[in-house]
Amino acid sequence: MGEKIWLSSPHMSGSEQKFIKQAFDTNWVAPLGPNVNEFENSLQEYLGKDKYVAALSSGTAAIHLGLILLDIKPGDEVICQSKTFSASANPIVYLGATPIFVDSERDTWNLDPEQLEIAIKDRISKGQKPKAIIAVHLYGMPYKVQEINKIADYYEIPILEDSAEALGSSYHGKKCGSFGDISILSFNGNKIITTSGGGALIANSKEIKDKAVYLSTQARGKAVEYHHTEIGYNYRMSNIVAGIGRGQMTVLDDHVKARRNNHQFYRKELEGFTSIEFLDEDQGCYSNRWLTTILTESFEEREALRSAMEKENIESRPLWKPMHMQPIFKSYPKYLNGISEDLFHRGLCLPSGSNLTESDLSRVSSTIINCLVNV
Ligand SMILES: *Cc1c(COP(=O)(O)O)cnc(C)c1O
Fold it and tell me: Which residues does ligand 1 sit against, CB inside 6 Å?
């Protein structure tokens, strides 16, 4: 059997250890220091001059602080895209608020504007207007930013943009991670760039960024003695980890290119197979193709492909199970059109790392083709 091919594994540039060594040499071994500042600066430069970035310990921590900054309190309702990873929804529950799950549309697989508006109107008619909307660019494909913004503006509900999977993607030329009232990124080990574990909160003003940093460092007041007027968190990024981030920023564009090439490779290899469908880029969307995903004709065909790959030591994974189907979330209100459940039953994520070789990719595609020819 060939060596294990992973869905998405870390891919270092080679310069990470230089920044880590600098941190050791200068004894900045703490959750602050030059690497943290420089990593934040390079993200700011990448996302746009009007953005303010706070580097944090994880994407989940960024969502948690983001919701606090949007003033989410116990008993509030927060709308969340159902088709996402659980980390988008968990922080709503940390705060004692209620997640309201909304289904996806077919063009991007993200938040459906139609169901979103139905949900907002229904919650208002029940006497409680949602306090925030969590919209996700799943697998790197931008959600329908224009349509979602229009609804959010009309009802005056802020957006928390979950761009954990979409650094390097853009919408009508503007970078993902720059569309929310608050936006977040993740640098977990499987993401397009990684710091081993880490995340960032992106704000539209220096005041909000400063507030995020303050909350992430135990809400310590300015006085020399520790003085607290608010509950704080220990969510700041370490200066060692930020050194990895600095190295990774030098290859972000290469990673996007490599993942988009993987996607084109699979498309080309599988183009003769009419049962396999790829997700096209919707109008104005540029995806980093963090993961290449396919839709099969049926649950059975999907499972056949998945187990054929498993036998060949190739990792693949069904599309994320929607939150409204998860035992822990299924009792919360939901607004559904059947699309996310259909995608979950027929969809598969293929190995998509920027470090895959041509021969890895060929091994994946020939395993798929052999399986399709033999069913
Ligand atoms: C990875 C991920 C997160 C969480 O980020 P962590 O850094 O792992 O905490 C949140 N949302 C989505 C969509 C993700 O894929």
Answer: 58-60, 84-85, 87-88, 136, 162, 164-165, 186, 188, 199
What is the model's pLDDT at position 163? 98
**Which of 232, 249, 266 is at the close of a domain?**
249
Final residue of a structural domain among 249, 266, 282? 249
User: Looking at ligand 1, which atom is closest to the CA of residue 60?
Assistant: 9
pLDDT of residue 1: 77
The whole domain housing 44 covers 16-249
When pLDDT is cut at 50, 70 and 90, the band that residue 374 belongs to is: confident
If asked whether residues 214 and 334 sit together in one domain, one would say: no
Cα 275 to chain center, whole Å? 28
Distance CA 67, CA 257 (A): 33
CA–CA separation, 43 vs 160, rounded Å? 18
Contacts of 357 (CB under 8 A, 6+ apart): none
In terms of domains, do 231 and 322 share one? no
pLDDT in tens, 154-185: 999 999 999 999 999 999 999 999 999 999 99
pLDDT at 225: 87
